[in-house]
Structures are given as C-alpha cells and as structure tokens.
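Email to the structure team, subject: Probable membrane transporter protein model.

Hi all, the expression group asked for a predicted structure before they design truncation constructs. Nothing fancy, just the tokens so they can compare against earlier work. One-line instruction: predict Probable membrane transporter protein, return tokens.
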Amino acid sequence: MNTMTLWHLSGWEFAALAGAALLVGFSKTAVSGANTVSLAIFAAVLPARASTGVLLPLLIAGDVLAVLTYRRHAHWPTLWRLFPAVAAGVVAGTLFLVWADDGIVRTSIGAILLLMAGVTVWRRRTAGTPREPEEVATRAGRAKARSYGVLGGFTTMVANAGGPVMSMYLLSAGFRKLGFLGTSAFFFLIVNVSKVPFSAGLGLIDGRSLLLDAALVVFVVPGALFGKWAVNRINQRLFEQLVIAATVVGGLQLLLR
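Reply from the structure team: attached below.
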C-alpha cells in the first residue's frame, strides 16, 4: 500500500491526524456526519486511497464506543431493512475502487452528499409534523430504505463517507436524537466490520496502516466522551442543523479538493 509510516510523519501531520481521530469519536457520539471532515484531513495528509484503510479501524473503534453509549436506543426494524441494500452497495463500491482514481471517487461522493443534504432540507421544509421511524414499514419507506442503503454502502466502501448519507436517511425517516444515534451506532459497527476483508483484499489495510492506527486510536476515546457530554446539551433542532451542515461541508470539501 502506498502510504506513510508513523515514522515518516512530521509533527504537524501527526497532530492533524490526531485531531481528525478526536473528531471521529465526537461524530460517533454526537454529530453523525462530522467525520467527513476527518476523511478530508486523512486524505490531505496521506495518499487518498490509502487514507481510507487507515481511517477504517478508527471508525470501528468509535462505533464500539457509540454502541456502548446508545445501545438501548437502536431501532432494529430499520436496520434489518437497510442491510441487504447496503451489502449490494458495498459490493458495487468495491468494484468501483478497482478502476476509479481518486479524482473520480471524490467528485462522485461529494455530489452525492450535497444531493442528499438538499433532498433532506426540502423534505423537512415541505413536511408537517415529524414522522416516526415506523414509516419504514410502508412501501414508500421500504423503497427509500433500499435507495439510501445502496448509496450508503457504496459511499462507505469507496471513501468511508457513508455517515452523511445514512444521517440524511435517518433524519428524513423522522428519527429523534437518541434513536438516531443508537440506530446509526449499530449500523456502522456492523457495516464497517464487514468492510475489513474487502479493504484488506484491496491492499488498503496492512501492518503499516495498523501501526499508525495503534498510535491514533487513543485520541478517539476523548472525542467520544466529549460527544457524549455535548449531545445532552444540544436540542433536537440544532442537532439536525449540525448534521446537515456537516454533510454539506464534507461534500464541498470533496468537490473542491
């Protein structure tokens, strides 16, 4: 894998990666979708494709902390409806990575994120009272779950950028804050663990990347603890605005790089 080892990083480069690892923990327990900023930092410091392999174990560490924090709030009917579509998206993303270069990947993901944010904002402005997550049992709910699931699987495989796509789905499905965090915690733990064999097969995870992960994972924990503290102080409306804003920022970063 074409990546830098821990010993080849300068002080500011390691500090940037450490800050991104803190943000990974924060995004998992507070504002899901904020880790698109982490994605951009990793891709700026490391080779873009290699950065996804370094970031994945850190995301899994954050997922474990999020599950431990919000495990009682997961909505499993939604998860079971999403997983088959997500699996199809992961396979499509793996095939896409075989031939796509970094520029195509960044442009594609950035455009998808901005589209999802726009659709969510439009739907929330035209909707009446917030809907409950049980809407996934309807035909329209199942179709929406499948479409977002494929996009989420695709984006999480090619750039670890599935968080904003799934954030837009959970917001549009009417999830409140704790249900949102609990459902996304289990979703991404399962999906990210399932991605490990694909990433290793593509050469994105190896001994050097894991050594760098071992040095960075300690920064995920304080980020997650701060997120747990902060989420209880963020009201629902601000929470949704922060999620959408993080998605837009992440999409623009990918398009403008």
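Residues 102-126 form the longest helix (25 residues). The chain is about 80% helix and 0% strand. Ping us if the truncation boundaries need rechecking.
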